[in-house]
Each structure stands twice: as C-alpha cells, then as structure tokens.
Design brief:
The protein is built from no helices and eleven strands. The protein has 120 residues and is an all-beta fold. β7 and β8 (77-82) form a beta hairpin. The chain starts with a strand and ends with a strand.
C-alpha cells in the first residue's frame, strides 16, 4: 500500500509560480514511477509530468520548459515546480504512484488532489 498526500496548490496570477509537493508513505520502495496529473473541469485527467525510480523524467508538451518534476534524496517526496503559469494550467492536480503488481501490470495510487487556479 502507498499513501500520497499533496500540498502546495492555490491561487496565483498568470506568469507566477507555485510548487506542489507529494509526500509518499507505506511501501515506497516498491514505487516504479511517480507523477503529477491534472484534471480541468469537464475534461479528462491527463499526465503533466512523471519521474521514474532511476530519475528519468517526461513532460506533457504543454508544460515543457515551464514545469519541473523532482524528488528528494530519500525518494519519499516528489515536487512539481510550476513557473510561468497560464490560466489554462488551472485544474485539480493529482499525485500518482505506480507499483508493479506482477511483470505485466501496475497498480496506481492517487492522492486526494490539490486545486491550482491561475487568474488572468
């Protein structure tokens, strides 16, 4: 079992910055990948950024060059630094952790979500 708790959301003006944090507890050594997803009203949840157990990262095209995913040395907390925020970044941001169940499948764990609102 993995438990995820997000923090750091809020209201910011366009062009501003926010940093989201996701603290993981439980079976953290089993985590393969951690990431941030977001869901805007009326839209599907989509991947924003992810980081693997060997610190390989990938980003959605819409946030490349503006957002950075990282984690602490203990690999218990993942961060999403968001710069040059735009109104279209407004969404609920969810932390995700994928844990292998067997060689063919993963189990996903989710945080409760944190609201990010960017005003124009």
């Amino acid at each position: 079992q993995v438990h995820l708790v997000e923090s750091g959301g809020g209201l910011v003006q366009a062009g501003g910055s926010l940093r989201l944090s996701c603290a993981a507890s439980g079976s953290i050594d089993s985590i393969l990948t951690m990431g941030w997803y977001r869901q805007a009203p009326g839209k599907q949840r989509v991947l924003v950024a992810a980081i693997t157990s060997v610190d390989s990262t990938n980003y959605a095209d819409s946030v490349k060059g503006r957002f950075t995913i990282s984690r602490d040395n203990a690999k218990t907390t993942v961060y999403l630094q968001m710069n040059s925020l735009k109104p279209e970044d407004t969404a609920v941001y969810y932390c995700n952790a994928d844990v292998p169940v067997n060689r063919y499948s993963l189990r996903s764990y989710w945080g409760q979500g944190t609201q990010v609102t960017v005003s124009s």
